What we know:
alpha/beta; ten-stranded mixed beta sheet; six-stranded parallel beta sheet; 23 strands; 51% helix
Amino acid sequence: MVSLRSLRLSLRFIIPLALALVLLAYAVMPLVGKLTLHWFEKDIDIRSRLIASTLHDPLTEMAKQRDRTKINALFMRAIKDERLFALGFCDGKGSLLYKTPTFPESLGCDLAGIGHAKSGSILKLAQGSLYISTSPIEMSGEAIGTLILVHDMSFIERRSSDTQKYVIILFAVLGVVVSLITVLVAHLCWRGWVEGVRSMLRGEGIFRPFSQPAASSELQPLVGDLRALLRNIDAERRFADDASITWNPDALRRLLHKELTGERIIVVSNREPYIHTETQGQVEIHRPASGLVTAVEPVMRACSGTWIAHGSGSADRETVDRHDRVPVPPSHPEYTLRRIWLTKEEENGYYYGFSNEGLWPLCHIAHVRPIFRTSDWQQYVSINKRFADAVVKEADSDDPVVLVQDYHFALLPRMIRTALPKATVITFWHIPWPNPESFGICPWREEILQGMLGSTILGFHTPFHCKNFLETVDRYLETRIEHESSTISHGGNLTLVESYPISIQWPYPWKDTIPTVDECRNEILASLGLPPTHLLGLGVDRQDYTKGILERFLAVERMLELHPEMVGRFSFIQIAAPTRSALEDYQAFEAQVRNLATRINQRFSAGSYQPIILKAEHHEPELVNRYYRAADVCMVTSLHDGMNLVAKEYVAARDDEKGVLILSQFTGAAHELHEALLVNPYYIEQTADALFQALSMPTFEQQERMRSMRALVRDFNVYRWAGRMLLDAARIRQREKLALRIGRRQ
């Protein structure tokens, strides 16, 4: 098939070229004959003058003596030249006095009329064509006769025939050479065009520095239009998808079956969605305090598949099968949890060390110095390899769809791509990405970037983080970056870098069973021993130095200073789940939080009243949701955060359209929830003013703000977040398949 197609392509070039060469040869042959004759006539004229000059003097003496014998002998010696056919001598009266035996009988001395011949003309006789030339013979300045020279032109005809033959051979050789060159150039150009189109289908751009530069330059005028066309098509399809799809679990399932032919999803994260722990001989199951789990777990319920994670629970080993798998959720299994086991040393190096003492502070502007140790890096590489091996074992095809989650697995995409070249690897980086200068302090920056560029799609929360990543790659790696399409080509792989703002499940899973807002409020107030009219503020975080908990407490303190009427009427509840308590920085931070809460409480407490109620323990999501519904104000004051889903969870929980969200401008959520009260958490007075504004905000304004934010969270929920990534992955897979088919047809 390929050879037949190549033959047809070649004939398209060769046949027109051959016809053109035949027509050119047909037109050139008469011209070549005329030019050859003209050149030889000039040559004969020159030879005639030379012969006449040679014979002039002896012929003059012999003609004066009328010595016929000597003249005939002279003539016979002269015509021994093969080109000189005959000689004759005419006197001044036009009589032919002397001639050689070969002199034509029909040729007389009257060159103007006899035999229709004249000097410098061609005479056609039976024996062939003859060329006639004359030369006057003078003595003492007086003409005594004319020498007639008759040249045989048969050699000219032979030479002309040979010349035409050579011309035909030349055209034939030229035709073959030109045809070969044309076909070769055509094939190279065709391959270049095909490669160019394949590159655009993959989103790579046109320029291919090490192959087909000609084709690249030829396609270059079309690059802008083609790229714009592809972007418009993608944008129109994405807009059509967003406008026509109501994003929910069923829509996500339909998307998988339609666009990805029902592919099972493999999710990889460090934190597992369900933890089994043993308490007093009983195995309990609980969900970790994790924004990642909050976002991804509903997606896995909708898509099914396998979630690979670190088994960290004290009873995790007792609940898995011999393949380290357990079906989840426990009450209604919808996907498989595959657990990976780590030793204490491995966890200290990979998780606590490199991930959370190195990468976490590196990526957050929280003024905590990153710590990098070679031993931690070695554990990080080793554990990433272990998870990559698990992905290969869990994959049921050579082109699985793998969702790699967060900074614990920066090396994993490249490892997966090495083992499964056809895999579609979607990496989502849940935390901010720093600027190139900040990231440059990491000793293994190149290895991390190369690992991440094994991804098919690399997602961040905001365009700003995407921009930082592109600039970082441009600074530290030799790559080709297409800023228009936001793609990076490195090591033979193409990575799409795109922003996908993460969100939460909508509607929340307890929608039909959770009590009303008033019931939740009364329940929470009663549990705290507070009156029904008491105002509540709420913060929900892990005890992490990036969450701005200390700044939040100081803002509460400042608000109570500025508005003493709020003392006794307002309490702030801080749910602070312990995290990474093995690290000294986190131990110190937990102590600071407790000490600050104690100091503020000591300052403003009266009787049983406490302005800050610190709950430093894990709370299940359903209970947290009740606190959301009870709180008048929710404060999210992160110093630096990728998104922060607490803000969206609070909005989703308020189906009464009341409550006020105070949101740090340094979170990804601030780019979406514009109706929140945005603050700079470092500016304590501004945050304190925002807190008082929220507590005194009229109900109608609360409803207007909350209604708008709820509409956004509803429309841009976690199913849409996952759907957009999977749609982009499906389109990339389709383009790669199309590019492969184009390549096979070359």
